[in-house]
Amino acid sequence: MPKNRNTFSFLARRGRRAASWLVHRGWEWAREAGAVTAEHPGRLRFGAIGEGTRLAFPQGTVFGEPWIELGSHCIIAEQVTLTAGMMPDLDLGPDPILTLGDGVVLGRGSHVIADTTVTIGPDTYCGPYVYVTSTNHSYDDPHEPVGKQWPRMEPVAIGPGCWIGTGAVILPGARLGRNVVVAAGAVVRGEVPDHAVVAGAPARVVRSWDPEKGWQPPLRTPAPVPIPEGVTPEQLVALAERGETPDDR
């Protein structure tokens, strides 16, 4: 009897390993087949989608795609929501509503809700679960449920080269300049100048760049050492394993 029990346990383990292998291989296939690119748009018909842009599978909610224009080499992670208009199947006119520049990155679970114009400049990187919206609920009438009151809409513009941290919220009417850093969890509204760092809820400028004085207040960590020309990725890996930097050589 113990021998039979051991045989059964062995077969069960092998069966579980085989099932696990099949599930993982099947999921890898689904992720590859379900990804959206310019060459393989699936059911989505964007107003524009550039070369090298990829929406990972599974996608979040996507509608109003004729009014969504995606630049080249954008990375849209899993479960990202992209919407133009308040609901599907609306005619939003001749102009794009939601525009992503070249090289934009949207982290997993992020939402970009464009009931009116939302523009994200090139080379802007967003961490996971960032929320960008051009619409906010109104609560003018104290006797009516907030969700039934007509929302307020204001355009949103995010400049090129920004970094938006995990869980940040960009509210209607926000206008971010060039190379702005938004701290994780910040809630941003209004105007943010170029080369500023904002944090908090509501967000405020906590560091900014002065052409004469540099960053104010000064950075607390030294600037990264640039990689010398001619250093290959393999050499960098070897140096990291030895705890060295390119300047140590």
SSE string, helix = H, strand = E? HEEEEEEEEEEEEEEEEEEEEEEEEH
User: Largest sheet, described in full?
Assistant: 9 strands, mixed
Low-confidence stretches: none
Share of helical residues:
10-25%
CATH architectural category of the largest domain: 3 Solenoid
Q: Span from first to last CA? A: 66 Å
The Cα radius of gyration reads: 24 Å
Class based on secondary structure composition and strand pairing: alpha/beta
Q: What is the general shape?
A: globular
- Identify the CATH class of the largest domain: Mainly Beta
Mean pLDDT: 90
Q: How much β-strand is present in the residues?
A: 25-35%
Strand order of the largest sheet: 2-5-8-11-16-19-22-23-24
Q: How would you describe this structure to a colleague?
A:
InterPro entries: Hexapep, Hexapep_transf_CS, Hexapeptide_acetyltransf, Trimer_LpxA-like_sf. Keywords: Acyltransferase, Repeat, Transferase. Pfam families: Hexapep (PF00132). One of its GO terms (molecular function) is acyltransferase activity. The protein is an alpha/beta fold. It has three domains: 34 residues; 183 residues, UDP N-Acetylglucosamine Acyltransferase, domain 1, CATH 2.160.10.10; 28 residues, no CATH class. The protein is 17% helix and 26% strand. It contains two helices and 24 strands. The strands form four sheets. A nine-stranded mixed β-sheet has the order 2-5-8-11-16-19-22-23-24, with no helix packed on it. β22 and β23 form a beta hairpin. It is globular. The N and C termini lie far apart (66 Å).
